[in-house]
Write a sequence for this structure.
């Protein structure tokens, strides 16, 4: 395992990050700025809303930065056919990675036949078109038993990535306020233990600092979704210099 003290270079870290441009309030101008930032930093991908895929494909053309589109986002409640259609359109418009939210209600209701049909349908749509799927669990809503079952399903169906969270999975707290844990150390460790070796782990939600990323990397995550990419990589550069 990699310790927090062992800090990769900023360039190495950038190749692990999906720069997130998903808040519903982002304007097209702000999205363009984010795309140029990700291109300049050398991120592995930019995660965008479906309508932004053509813009992202154009802005990132000629670079190594991939276009990642979300589907069924952020609540996972669309019909299976809708998730498949959303994924296919995004791929046709230039996305090479799809982050889709599982139907959380079906998971919590133990309707595993439905969940399996959904994941298989979306994964097949991606794989046959040369794209890879990241299945978002939204762990804040789930018990460990659900997370383990989803890991086993990803392994069985050959899903490329199991992903912790959307970053928008707000759960009602005892106070009545809403909050989210996002990518926790316990959940990343649990997912790494129960996913097969060919299923990678993407941690997303609440990754704001370099140390956040490094702790989760040490537990087995190899891809990270964050909107704090610039500050994370700036801190890595400072450490490398000093």
């Amino acid at each position: 395992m990699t310790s927090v003290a062992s800090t990769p270079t900023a360039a190495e870290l950038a190749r692990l990050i999906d720069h997130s441009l998903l808040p519903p309030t982002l304007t097209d101008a702000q999205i363009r700025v984010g795309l140029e930032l990700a291109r300049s930093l050398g991120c592995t991908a930019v995660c965008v809303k479906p309508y932004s895929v053509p813009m992202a494909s154009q802005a990132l053309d000629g670079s190594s930065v991939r276009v990642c589109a979300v589907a069924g986002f952020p609540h996972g409640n669309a019909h299976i056919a809708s998730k498949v259609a959303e994924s296919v359109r995004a791929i046709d418009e230039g996305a090479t990675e799809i982050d889709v939210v599982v139907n959380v209600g079906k998971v919590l209701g133990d309707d595993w036949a439905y969940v399996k049909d959904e994941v298989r349908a979306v994964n097949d749509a991606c794989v046959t078109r040369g794209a890879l799927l990241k299945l978002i669990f939204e762990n804040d809503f789930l018990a460990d038993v659900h997370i383990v079952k989803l890991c086993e399903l990803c392994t069985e169906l050959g899903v490329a990535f199991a992903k912790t969270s959307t970053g928008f999975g707000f759960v009602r707290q005892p106070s009545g306020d809403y909050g989210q844990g996002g990518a926790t150390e316990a959940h990343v460790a649990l997912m790494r233990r129960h996913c097969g070796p060919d299923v990678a782990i993407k941690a997303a939600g609440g990754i704001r600092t370099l140390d956040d990323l490094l702790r989760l990397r040490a537990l087995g995550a190899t891809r990270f979704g964050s909107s704090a990419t610039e500050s994370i990589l700036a801190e890595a550069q400072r450490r490398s210099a000093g």
Observations:
- Residues 112-127 form the longest helix (16 residues).
- The beta strands are 17-21, 45-48, 66-71, 97-101, 132-136, 161-163, 171-172, 178-179, 200-204, 223-226.
- The chain has one domain: 10-241.
- The longest strand covers residues 66-71.
